[in-house]
Amino acid sequence: MNKLLPILNVLGAVLMLFSITFLMPLLPALWFKDGSARAFVESALITLGTGFLLWLGTRRFKRELKARDGFLLVSLLWTVIAAFSTIPLIMKIPGLTFTDAYFETMSGLTTTGATVLVGLDALPQGLNLWRHELNWVGGMGIIVLAVAILPLLGVGGRELYKAETPGPMKDSQLTPRITETAKNLWLVYTGITIACIVSLRVAGMSWFDAVCHAFAAMGLGGFSTHDASVGYFNSPAIEFVLIVFMLLAGMNFATHFLVWREKSFKPYRYDAEAKTFLLLVLGSCVGIAAYLVAMGTYDNFWTALRHASFNLVSVATDCGFASVDYDKWPIFAPLWMLFLSCISVSSGSTGGGIKMIRTLLVIKQGWREMLHLLHPRAIIPIKIGGAVIPNKVVFSVQGFIFLYFYSVIGLSFVLMLSGLDFISSFSAVIACINNAGPGLNQVGPASNFQGLNDFQTWVCTFAMLLGRLELFTLLIVFTPAFWRK
Amino acid sequence: MKIVILGAGQVGSSVAENLVRESNDITVVDIDATKLQFLQDRYDLRTVHGFASHPAVLRQAGIEDADMLLAVTQSDETNLVACKLAHTLFNTPTKIARIRCTDYSAQEGLFSPENFAVDYIISPEEVLTDYIHKLIEYPEALQVLDFAEGKVRLAAVRAFHGGPLVGHELQYLRKHMPHIDTRVAAIFRQDRPIIPEGKTVIEAGDEVFFVAAAENIRVVMREMRLLDKAAKRVMIAGGGNIGRRLAKSLEPHYQVKLIDHNKRNSERLAAELSRTLVLFGDATDPDLLLAENVEDMDVFCALTNDDENNIMSALLAKRMGARKVIALINRSAYVDLVQGGQIDIAISPAQATIGSLLAHVRRGDMAVVHSLRRGAAEALEAIAHGDLQTSKVVGRRVEQINLPRGATIGAIVRGDQVLIAHHDIVIESEDHVIIFVVNKEMISKIEKLFQVGIGFFG
Fold first, then answer.
1. Is A391 in CB contact (< 8 Å) with chain B?
2. The dihedral of CA B240, B243, B244, B245: what is its sign?
3. Distance (Å, whole) CA A425 – CA A428
4. Helix (H, G, I), strand (E, B), or coil: what is residue A1?
5. Where does residue A383 rank: exposed (0-12), middle (13-18), buried (19+ CB within 10 A)?
6. Given an 8 Å threshold on Cβ–Cβ distance, is B277 in contact with A381?
7. In terms of DSSP H, where are the helices of B307-434?
8. Confidence at residue B287, expressed as pLDDT on a 0 to 100 scale
9. Is the model's pLDDT at A248 over the cut of 90?
10. Strands B377-383 and B432-437
11. Which DSSP helix (H) or strand (E) runs through B9?
């Protein structure tokens, strides 16, 4: 128990801090007089109070946290905060079960963007902003998780984050202190978000929609204020703006930070991930558009390109907006999009899945094995952007990817066992574990996760958290070895 | 001239040897007494035992009235400090430092008088790498040397049956290729120099030295022998300083395999090189060579530190089918033994690199000096200064210049223009004149020719 108590102390402190976030939805709640203001004040007080009691009660046990406490702390943070975030939803939406509410907030905080709610257009503005704010705050948490906490814990070869920054970035561990780094990255994140809000407003959204969608796009969450998602606007300009910002959010924020600090675009060129990511995603857009024309889905290539680009970028970056029902497309297209969602975004972005750096590493490892067969005496290091990746990291990345696929297969079987059809089960697990959002078929872009039963909803909730915390962080907490003294 | 040499390693001792022969007063400084003893026993020079960058040691070596400091120790830092000290404390006129690390030499202004005060930088490794690189670029050549920043090249090639010029007089060359300007500077037949004239007939087996603009080298070579196809695949044995640099400069254009026998070093090499395939193993291991298709290699370079190893692995590679083999050989006795046999080219690092130093030691303004045929012959790029009165070359036609017999003017570089020397070209001031000397004894006469006289009495 004395392992848990100091962590609970920190958790209490974080909860008190988190209670502030309930205040932001007060603005639209009061402005639009939607009657949800009271719920947010009460939620804030409940969270603040609980956090304070937790902090006060465990104050005696306060001690410096060790690196391995991080696993438990991170896992608890995401589960507990998601629980408290449900308060305003349960208060204001009649008939909403805790299961569904928890799915919704977990989907927000892990920036998945899958929803169980219908009638979003009629939801009080305060609640809509709250959902989107969860996307945005979740994104902030993920950046810090990605650049500071996971490398510290060494999860799934994450220490390569340090080795991977090549060229002029090699010596610059951004800033020497984690808190400084986090602050700087948040600044960049906030800056790009503001640019996104303004661009969306210019492209024709109302201020409220612009803020909500910018939050969802930057966190690569993909919540929308409309049931029809971005399809509601039917505007190429809006889609274009969102594509640009989703791609930005799918790159490493540390690279954005370096570009901003050095006032030059050079860091993008040295970022091995960004290059492959953009090439792969943009190439796929054109390819899928051509495929859709060839299959007769669209008559006009430019219409096909517009819809293919928006939906493909949205799924591939693990955002999850939709502008058309791509579930109706020939099955190759949506499956390819889901495949991209597994691999394409950069580490240090707000997206999910395996991450491009690990994909590159595993491809290079495969290539190395083949070369070794040809040249048994050859010494072939694996290099990313000119830096050599130690074998230890390669092993742990391979381990990560194996575990990832076992998780996908295992969870798909569980969903199928519970009665869901194959495509729905498989795509739901992929969409959740990658934090992408909509799947196919029953959980496709035209419908949502509401049709699932409680058990299935919990499985999906678990998948979201598992993917977000990069498998190991969460799974290690369930091992007996972790709790052994 | 009074010269202080710091460092009695390979570079230091071969420089000392060359300079002693040209009647200079040499003092060699090193911390290794046995190396000094070795030099002392062989040559007429003075040695000082001590740390090369300590002022007291420098003073003891007589730097106070030395004309030149040659800092060629293993350590860049020692060399730099010694030059700075010589400048600040002793006001030495010319300071030359050997710098290995390219990061130092890439820095702008680092060597100016107010900083490290180095007048000339030499990098033997770079010279040697460049030397081998050119041999791979021209696989038929025995030697290819640059003048005037690569505008003019001097190439040595062995004539073979099948070359259009073989069996013909030299003047046939002009008839055969009216658009290509070239000049044969010297011919060595059975190791004896022949002064080329219009009527000289080229025979198979002759070693022909000719001067041409860089882009014409291959065309002229085709006159002497049938050309092979250009090299594409290169195998390098030995990943030391030379092997590593060579692989790095070759890898953008060639398929390179590099063999090293040290695991740690192999890993370091693999990390540094991007397209080269680094192999961990022994270059004298036939199984390894066979597995890595040595028979398909266009060029095999044995560049380890060990002469015997280089000879054996080069012989082995040749026997197994490599097209051209090059071996780096430090001992000059071995070079003579091996060259021209099964091993196509034996390179003596000391001879290949000494030229870059000699250029600064020569009297008269010499831009480039290349030592040829193991030091017996020399090719110089001298800069003409002065006017008709003060100089013995400026304002005169090539045929009027009083060259010793055995010295030929190959080409003249005027600004960006390359003029292949014909008897009626008039030398102007600031021309770079490229001269081929078949016998080193004539060097002092050439030096005097290019020194600017005092007033009208020169």
1. no
2. positive
3. 5
4. coil
5. middle
6. no
7. 307-320, 332-338, 349-361
8. 92
9. yes
10. antiparallel
11. none
Distance of alpha carbon B385 from alpha carbon B431, whole angstroms: 8
Amino acid at A362: V
Nearest to A216 by CA among A144, A310, A118, A110: A110
B280 Cβ under 8 Å from any chain A Cβ: yes
- CA pair distance B75, B83, nearest whole angstrom: 13
Cβ of residue B251 closer than 8 Å to a chain A Cβ: no
- Cβ contact A381–B270 (<8 Å): yes
Closest to A377 (Cβ–Cβ): which among B267, B269, B281?
A: B281
Q: Which residues contact A417 (CB under 8 A, 6 or more apart)?
A: none
Residues B325-345 have pLDDT tens digits of: 999 998 877 887 887 688 888
Q: Do B270 and A379 touch (CB under 8 A)?
A: yes
The domains found in chain B, sorted by start residue, are 2-122 (3.40.50.720), 233-347 (3.40.50.720), 362-457 (3.30.70.1450)
Asked if the C-beta of B237 comes within 8 angstroms of chain A's C-beta atoms, the answer is no
| Contact status of A374 with chain B (Cβ, < 8 Å) | no
Taking Cα atoms as reference points, which of A397, A457, A400 lies closest to residue A429?
A457
Rounded-to-integer distance, Cα A103 and Cα A451, Å: 13
Residue A164 has a pLDDT of: 38
Checking if the pLDDT of A347 tops 50, the result is yes
Question: A interface mutation test: which of B278, B284, B289, B296 has the most A CBs within 10 A?
Answer: B278
Residue A146 DSSP symbol: I
**β-strands B255-260, B277-280: how paired?**
parallel
Q: What is the structure's pLDDT at B453?
A: 66
Q: Is B382 on the interface with A (CB under 8 A)?
A: no
B286 touches chain A (CB under 8 A): no
Give the ipTM: 0.74
Please name the helix (run of DSSP H) or strand (run of DSSP E) that holds residue B76, with its range, or none.
Answer: helix B76-85
- Say how far residue B441 (Cα) sits from the centre of its chain: 19
For A306-325, the pLDDT digits (tens) are: 999 999 999 999 998 999 99
Strand partners, B381: B368, B434
Mutate to test the interface with B, among A377, A384, A388 (most CBs of B within 10 A): A377
- Is A386 in Cβ contact with B274 (below 8 Å)? yes
Helices A272-294 & A301-316 angle (0-180, nearest 10): 140
Minimal CA–CA distance to A380: which of B246, B277, B292? B277
Q: In chain B, which residues have their Cβ closer than 8 Å to the Cβ of A371?
A: 277
A375 in B contact zone (CB under 8 Å):
yes
Report the pLDDT value the prediction gives residue A203, as an integer from 0 to 100. Answer: 93
**Sign of the CA dihedral with B450 first, then B455, B456, and B458 last:** negative
- Residues in CB range of A198: below 8 A, 6 or more apart: A210
Rounded-to-integer distance, Cα B144 and Cα B366, Å: 19
Test A376 with B291 for CB contact under 8 angstroms. yes
Backbone angles phi and psi of A100, in degrees to 5: -70, -40
Backbone phi, psi, residue B299, to 5°: -135, 135
Which residue in the block uniquely carries the two structure tokens 């608890």?
A76
Q: How confident is the model at residue A169 (pLDDT cuts 50, 70, 90)?
A: very low
Which of B266, B274, B292 is the closest to A375 by Cβ? Answer: B292
Rounded CA-CA distance A448/A460 in Å is 12
Q: Are B11 and B72 contacting, i.e. CB atoms less than 8 angstroms apart?
A: yes
Distance from C-alpha of A339 to C-alpha of B397, rounded to nearest angstrom: 78
pTM for the whole structure: 0.79
Nearest to B237 by CA among B229, B246, B228: B246
Q: How far apart are CA A285 and CA A312, in angstroms?
A: 7
A385/A151 Cα distance (integer angstroms): 19
Q: Which residue has the higher pLDDT, B106 or B57?
A: B57
